[in-house]
Structures are given as C-alpha cells and as structure tokens.
Amino acid sequence: MTTIDKYEYYQNSVQSPDVDAQFLQRVYTSLKGKEPQTLREDFCAAFALCCEWAKLGLDKKAIGIDLDEEPLAYGRKNYLKALAPSEQQRVTILSQDVLSPEMPHADIIAALNFSYYGFKTRPLLKQYFENCYKTLNEGGLLVLDCFGGPASMETNENESEYDDFSYFWDQDTFDPITNEGLFYIHYQPKGKKKIEKVFTYDWRLWGIPELKDLMEEVGFKKIHFYWEGTDDDGEGDGDYAKVTSGEICDSWVAYVVGEK
C-alpha cells in the first residue's frame, strides 16, 4: 500500500502560508495604519501559518488553536523545529476549542482554509463570531476565507498536477436546501495508484451576505471584502484586492474581514 506524508502534500498543494502571513500583515497595516503583532490562527492544524508569521519580525507572536492533536504534533515536529530558537519562543500552540471563553487575545484572528464551514448552524457560527469579537484586541481583525459560485453547487472533481504528484479536489455532494456538501482531497504520487479521501470535509457553504450579517450582528463595525484577480486564462491568480462588489464566475475565492 502506498503511503504518503499527507501534511507535506497538503502544504505543497493547498497552502501558501508565507503568502498568507504577508497578506494578513498587509491588510491589517492598510486598514489600521500600523503593523499587527499578535496573530491567532484558529483551526490551525499543523500551524504552518503561525510559523511563517513568527518569521516576519521580532515583534511578531503567533498562537495556534486546534482540537486535533495529530496535526499539532506534526507541526511541532516538522514546522516549529525548523524555526530559529527566537522564533520558536514566539509561537504558542494550544489544544483547545475555539468556542472556549478563555481564548487568548490577538490583533488578528484568522480562520482560513474554510475551516469554520464546519459550523453548520447560524447560532453556532454566531457564537464563534461573538467569541472572536470578545477576544480581539481593540481595532483587531477577524479574517475568513470563503468560496462559491455555480461550480460549488454541483458534483465535480478537479485535478492539479505537481512535479511528483497530482492533487484532486472532489466535491462529492451538495444539498441546495441546507447548502451542505461533502468534499474530499485525493492524491496520486507519480507513477503510483491514486490514494482516495486523504482528507474529508463535511461543510456548510456560507455565503458572503450571511457572513457579513452575522459579523455586524455581533458588533463588528466595518466589513471588508478582498476578491481574487484572474490571469490571462481566466483562472484565479492568487492576488486579492479590496472591493465593494464581486463578479460573476463559475467559482471564486474571497476574504471577508471584520474590523472591531
């Protein structure tokens, strides 16, 4: 049976934590006129983003929160140890529920990789947003990513090829009554058999208007939107600009930023 380092594959196919860290710093600085210091990464898994944040400067502190000990252990072994000792001291990892009232405070709270989609009811998501609002420093930002478009409301599987493996994003189901769907990530090492369901996601797809309404409801004074640009082929280019309106496309990715 073929075995892979699933977190390494995930890092190489899904995440760009260095780019994400710079984006978060840029957004905060542009909105607040000063640099942020503390980042809290909720649902942090192997907390690669926390480690990249610590690299940005001597004043940068990162806190990773997750309940799953497996990715936390992987991050400690593979990402945290790769940092300089002074950087390691500025990364704190907690095995904790993001709904806990005792969450640490931060300038930025980031819930990325659509992780909060696991909250399937409005009361539960509102509870999370309320907790974020309470534990943000004054003027702090809650940063969420989200996706949508007609392609997210139908079953499909997309393949992306990398040097030594292929990555498959598989939307297996979608229920238009609940906006819930099952999603899988498959990997196929070059020249080997495809490994099915390496990661599984059981999500409710939250729309931007729903997120905005809930954020305003719990007290966020301003909501900002960052929309991904497109390259010459009409595909997403990974560059996000602040916008007041989106555009019609089969699939899109955006950031929603709540300002305390």
Strand-helix topology:
Blueprint: H1 6-13, H2 17-32, E1 38-42, H3 48-54, E2 61-66, H4 69-78, H5 85-88, E3 91-95, E4 106-111, H6 122-135, E5 136-148, E6 156-161, E7 165-171, E8 180-189, E9 195-204, H7 208-218, E10 222-230, E11 236-243, E12 252-259
Parallel strand pairs: 1-2, 1-4, 2-3, 4-5
Antiparallel strand pairs: 5-12, 6-7, 7-8, 8-9, 10-11, 10-12
Helix pairs in contact: 2-3, 6-7
Cα radius of gyration in angstroms = 18 Å
**Uncertain residue segments:** none
Rounded mean pLDDT is 96
Measured between the Cα atoms of the first and last residue, the distance is 50 Å
What structural class is derived from the secondary structure elements? alpha/beta
As a percent range, the share of strand residues is 35-45%
Q: Would you give an account of this structure?
A:
The protein has 260 residues and is of the alpha/beta class. 27% of the residues lie in helices and 36% in strands. The chain contains seven helices and twelve strands. It has helices spanning 6-13, 17-32, 48-54, 69-78, 85-88, 122-135, 208-218, and strands spanning 38-42, 61-66, 91-95, 106-111, 136-148, 156-161, 165-171, 180-189, 195-204, 222-230, 236-243, 252-259. The strands form two sheets. Strands 3-2-1-4-5-12-10-11 form an eight-stranded mixed sheet. The chain has a four-stranded antiparallel sheet with strand order 6-7-8-9, covered by helices on one side. The chain is globular and about 50 Å long. It starts with 5 loop residues before the first helix and ends with a strand. The relative contact order is 0.15. The mean pLDDT is 96.
